[in-house]
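Loading example: each entry is read as two labelled lines plus one structure line.
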Amino acid sequence: MRRAFVQSLCRLAAQDPRIVLLTGDLGYLVMEPFQRQFPDRFFNAGVAEQNMIGLATGLAEAGFLPYTYSIATFAALRPFEFIRNGPVMHNLPVRMVGMGAGFEYGHAGPTHYGTEDVAVLRTLAGLTVVIPADPAQTTTAMLATSKLPGPVYYSLGKDDGAVLPELAGQFELGRIQIVREGRDLAIVTMGTLVREALAAADELAAHGVEACVAVVSNFNPDPVDDLADLLANHSQAITVEAQALSGGLAACVGTVIASHGLACRLKPLAVRTPPDGTSGSQQDRWRKHGLDRAGIVSSVLATARGACQ
Amino acid sequence: MIRSTLFLGVSLTLEKKLHPNAIRRLILDQSKRANVGHIGSCLCVAEILAALYGEVMKGKPGDADRDRFILSKGHAALALYAVLRLLGEITDEELNTFCCDGSFFGVHPERAVPGIDFSTGSLGHGLSIAVGAALAARMQKSQRRLFCLISDAECNEGSVWEAVMFAAHHKLHNLHVIIDANGQQAFGLTRDVLNASNLNERWKSFGWRVSEVDGHSVSALVNVLSSESNDSAPHVVIATTTFGRGVSFMEQGRPLSQAHLPVQPINWHYLPMSDQEYKIALAELERAH
């Protein structure tokens, strides 16, 4: 989604002279199209993420539309308080991009994992959090949110090759997208894990379980009505996210179920254990945390068996 | 409710210049009424704010090209409220809500207050915003300048030095930082907590133009803050101040009503005034006037 992001930003910047791009010294061989096209609106803030957010706050208050860019954990967690006391507290249109969400920086190890960015930033009322699932949705989401008066955080995957034809690039604030219908179970997921959920749904069909797959691509506003409608029609739901269990997708879905009094049993799949010193590919990390297609399938089948007993 | 519009029967502003002791009077009145602390930090920046708002900063409220001020040491917000009151930006009624439930006038400044552009209070935050605002002014080809007041202890924050590096690298000479060098921080003296006594050399080595000045001389402050330089570097003014300036028992660190406390100025970061202390403080201001 990196190239989708930069291409979309170039398109927006060509029409809107207020747009500036700040990077925390990351995005080599990705950011250059913007840098070449808009050299006066490109700033490398250096390896200094707190200051980058502070700069963006000052620029936005003066009328600019700053985008900041770094790896998810450096973009969201290092400057968390600057985000809270800056763009959020002042309701300024700063757009923050966190790259490589979840376990995408696999072999780089736990210091580089973006396994809390969405969960943590979702706590900030007033900050729209966008989690696109593929490049086409990245483009749609960036265009749809570019004019918002308040701040936005985009949690993006790196991979520009993983395309989800089922999603067809759809995005709407406060809504979910259903990319597969199924009456037995709802799999609610987000980001790069959508493809694992779709593959799992195919496998589950072979076991006689018809799973619906729902994509959540934004919080604040949370897609409460859509989730309530979906979960009112399913007795079982499973959330799948490469995020901390607390605060993320499971927390949102669980709150909808409880606050609407729905008779839907939720099984949350998320990152539940602290780093143990190991690292591995994204696929390996998904497997380790039970988030890959096999993990989803076995969780669903185990839950179904438990429900029958 | 305390009347705060007049200081000892004289005009609030003298020949359009803000009088530091008029600022101090409002600080004492409101601290007493609200029964809160942070008095020492507010008293010691009275001349700095008088210089900035009385003489140095140009432009009217609401003008896009007006000079801007960011109070990064947000715990001195009451001093800024006092200036805004003296300038007529806010009313007595508004100022008298200081630290009341539901008020916009808290211990730290909120941008909801007329004349305050940024909410601050978390040390190490305001300078980054000021640097972004200075960069914005340059990109917009505006002549407006950015003035940012930080404290010497605030230089403990790593984010200050991130901002310092960026401003120097981009030669933001429309940015003026004033360091309130009062030598105090929350546990005592800055030199005992994290010694940074050579602030001049530190900022200079980061590529800034450095001035040093008596932080209680309005004319000296005006001179250095108005000085033009061919230097393209951003400008830092190290203003040496006395914590609690203008009230001798605060300068000396003596809480008159709590004799069991150690004698050190930082007491007046925390303590509200007793009735007796308030009376003595006001009498001192009156004599000084």
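The first strand of chain B starts at residue 13 and ends at 14.
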